[in-house]
Amino acid sequence: MTAASAAGQASNWLPEITGLIIAAVTGGGLATLIKVRPERSLISVNAAQGAVIVQSGVIDSLRADLNSARAEIRELRSHMTEMAALRDQVRGLESENGNLRARVAHLGSQIRGGP
Description:
Blueprint: H1 3-113
């Protein structure tokens, strides 16, 4: 085989190699673009689902905190009602105590000096 015949055989393969390179570049590039598009939306969907899961967890935590706060408020209101009733009872006892002191003083003055 001479150099001229080797060059002739190489030139016979040149169009096929060039076509394969172009097909690889354009077809592969097109395939990559086609593949990336659905993956991009899939990435967005996965990110959105992750955000929903995180938000759901935060919402569940906030609901639990809210329910706990509501229970605590009910308990505090119950204590406030109880305290108000006790305050009224103390006022009544103080008033009764004042009336009894006045009566003791009156009875003491009757004993010492007569009616």
